[in-house]
Amino acid sequence: MTLTAEPSTQLDRLRFFIDGEWVAPRGGETHTALEAATEEVLGTAAMGTEADIDAAVQAARRALDEGPWGRTTAEERAAVMERFADALEKRADATSTLVSRENGMPIGLSTAFNGAAPAGLLRMYAQIGRQTEFESVRPSLCGATIVRREPVGVVGAITPWNYPQVLAMMKIAPALAAGCTIVLKPSPETALDTYVFADAATEAGLPPGVLNIVLAGREAGASLVSHPLVDKIAFTGSTAAGRLIGAECGRLIRRMTLELGGKSAAVVLDDADMGTFLAGLDGASFMNNGQTCTTQSRILAPRSRYDEVIDALADYCKNLVVGNPLDTSTTLGPMASEVHLGRVNSYIDIGKSSNARLITGGGRPQGLDKGWFVEPTVFADVDNADRLAREEVFGPVYAVIPYDTDEQAAAIANDSEFGLGGSVFTSDESRGIEFARTVRTGTIGVNYYQLDLGAPFGGMKASGVGRELGPEAINAYLEYKSVFVSADQLPS
Ligand code: NAD
Fold this sequence. Notes:
This protein is α/β, with parallel strands linked by helices and 492 residues long. It has 14 helices and 23 strands.
């Protein structure tokens, strides 16, 4: 196996980034980060406690209430954000490599999502901040009203391990543009990379306390959700955790955005071009080894071309290059952790013991004795009521489901508790766009699926609440305030 990047030295992150300083943990727990492809030790990180989270929230609150950030102009914030982007870009190669080693993401994808995208988002939201009207005056019955858009306040951002850099920046960038301060709690599975934000923010001159980072597990994470000085929670993760977090935010009447799980469908219409379908699968389904929230693992195939679709999927899986994610020829890396591999394998066992037909895969790839690898797997004849069709596997496992009519295909696609992504493949684009209207998901692609950072992204149904990305996302970090004045009091 060829490694295309230098094996880096062991990385340790034993302090938290709070109030612009590297702060010693209040507790003594640590997390050993293992490399997904080799199971070797990558580094050690301190695990935060409720007390560490509290210190970070206090710092964010002070920075908001007393510090300069909440009173800066959009232009001043944009200038800092652009320097932050410059500082991240300098570190982009090292960050992309580190994340690939942590969670198994193929390096090309990691370069795009962990290297380039975070800096791109900072620049995009710097510009959106500049274009946002933070104050306007409108005539009222008795005088005038100044309509202000104020920062929502202290943001608690909680992120998963699958796209750790870009998912964190999807929260940090609009929050900074809006004038908020942030406490970021990343996931232990990707314990090391998130601190690059602290290095880059320091270099950029972000004022102390505006961005604080504490690695922690669920319990300390829950204390961030319920902390009395937090104003908004921005969460990306599983629907199970989202339900708990949403319930707590509801109890506290706390603002929240929830980006949760999915069980999306790729629908092959009866006139689809098989080459277009196979090319589209790269973005639609096994991107990041199937560890993507929008993974389209339910393949809806017309009965008239059912065998053709199954054969094409089997060939697609056999042609995937499974291996070390740092090798540029790899198209399918390992699962992010041993626990997660166990979860994916348990779904393969569920498939094997159901009435579904195992077409290919279902085991460990030959020749890969170390690392959390799993063969790309296709099950055919899956019933949409089966667990394999209803639950998120979060790995490279296809469930092929037959259908007879377009209406039936849409009904099966919609027969899911989730509503995150999807795609439709057809030779007639207008038919595809029409079909897309009938599917209740936050995003859907016609003949391909590619995230657009400039458009709103999020889920319907149990896939979430609210939207990230696009100019729209800044709204989740702003509160309206109406100031009623008599016209003669208005500033000229
Ligand atoms: P997870 O829910 O187990 O953990 C996500 C984060 O939440 C971690 O930082 C974890 O420590 C924290 N957490 C868990 N329970 C918590 C609680 N009760 N209170 C506070 N914090 C808590 O998810 P994961 O396994 O890390 O990530 C995979 C999941 O994320 C999948 O379901 C995937 O679909 C989803 N996801 C969704 C999107 C999206 O945009 N919709 C994007 C990426 C991933």
